[in-house]
């Protein structure tokens, strides 16, 4: 998959007639991720702050000539990159601990529904900023709480 940051074409998801000249889900995400990595390299330890993620990404988009991304003010479309941009590697470590500690506990207790749920959330986090909206936070925290409580009850 290739792309040109200077491409001014719009997104086109549903057919491959103009695939070479249009942004699609894959090349658009790759461009966003490259720019997110640029920002992470500038602020690796403490990030830019959660309120400045899009502003810093827009600067990175402009530096790369990704005008379409700057105009649309895209987020990184990856929860791991979003966390690293916003609160640095320390925040990324906490996020990974949250995900993978819960996954470890689910596997250890042989709670396969919880395991499947966590794997789904982790994989969704690779292509979407699932915790950047209150709906995502509430959904994930609600089910992690419910499943964790079910594990505690089953162990008693």
From TrEMBL:
Keywords from the UniProt entry: Membrane, Transmembrane, Transmembrane helix
Entry annotated with the keyword Cell membrane: no
O-antigen ligase-related domain location: 20-95
Primary site of residence: membrane
Intracellular or extracellular location(s): Membrane
Membrane topology: Multi-pass membrane protein
Residue ranges crossing the lipid bilayer per the database entry: 80-100, 112-131, 137-154
Superkingdom of the source species: Bacteria
Protein name: O-antigen ligase-related domain-containing protein
Organism: Pontibacter saemangeumensis
């Amino acid at each position: 998959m290739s792309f040109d940051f200077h491409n001014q074409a719009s997104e086109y998801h549903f057919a491959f007639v103009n695939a070479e000249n249009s942004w699609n889900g894959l090349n658009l995400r790759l461009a966003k991720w490259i720019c997110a990595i640029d920002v992470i390299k500038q602020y690796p330890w403490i990030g830019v702050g959660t309120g400045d993620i899009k502003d810093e990404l827009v600067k990175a988009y402009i530096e790369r000539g990704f005008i379409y991304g700057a105009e649309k003010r895209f987020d990184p479309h990856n929860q791991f990159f979003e966390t690293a941009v916003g609160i640095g590697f320390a925040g990324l470590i906490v996020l990974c601990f949250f995900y993978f500690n819960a996954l470890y506990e689910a596997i250890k207790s042989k709670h396969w529904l919880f395991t499947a749920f966590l794997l789904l959330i982790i994989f969704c986090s690779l292509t979407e900023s699932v915790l950047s909206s209150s709906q995502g936070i509430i959904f994930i925290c609600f089910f992690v709480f419910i499943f964790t409580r079910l594990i505690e009850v089953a162990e008693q």
